[in-house]
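Morning!

This is the sequence you dropped in the shared folder:
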Amino acid sequence: MWTLTNTRYILAAASVLPALNAIGDPQPHSFRLVERFNLVPKPGFTFTPTPGLTSVADAGDLTTQSSDTGNCALIEYTSALPRAKLYSQWLTPPNDLLALQALTSPQWDPAQAVLISSNTPVPPPTAPGADPGNVTITSYAPKEVRLKAAAKTPAVLLYNDRTADDWRAWVDGKPAPLLRCNYIMRGVFLPVGEHTVEFRFQPTVVPLYVTLLAFVVGILLAAWLIWTRFTANSAPKTAAPIGRGETPVEP
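The structure's back. Tokens below.
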């Protein structure tokens, strides 16, 4: 999961490093210690001497202090996939169940091939195993990502971030089919050559229109109720006819 989700850095106790390197990763010793540190009170902060109590309310009262013997560590996972990567080889399992099985199969190497969902079709690979080229991220924002790719062969660009129905893809300024890669990630097919790729999050406006319509209907209904109540209260009242022999009663 750390490989597929591009999880490269982990904050943990330094003592877990040997256990991480023994979890059975396809590439042994994939975890390395980057820096050790301790968590200490921020400058100017003092502990209260009350036995059994501490004046540290939350993590905001603490900071890090580098130390060669620190209890905590920044650990790098060197087998994580890049955030963006080109592939010259891909597979299209017939359904999602088989795709999930392939994700955990020892026979599948996520660094060499990418899985494409059957509901986002793509042409078959023409040069499996060939150097696909390279890709770099040129601009990043939560709802818009831009990349520059140089594809040496027809390739699939895998962008390791979760896909959704409202994500759209553009290649060289033109809309392109968004691929669902490795079950939940985004991707796009690229022909040979240099390309500018954009992923944009553009929610459909239908829910917005429905919400606005509901507000308008609510306002109109409230206005109608107020108007009917006002007209009913302001209508002149007519006295009931007095029968013969009856005495009128003051209202």
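Headline: The chain has a mean pLDDT of 86.

More detail when I'm at my desk.
O.
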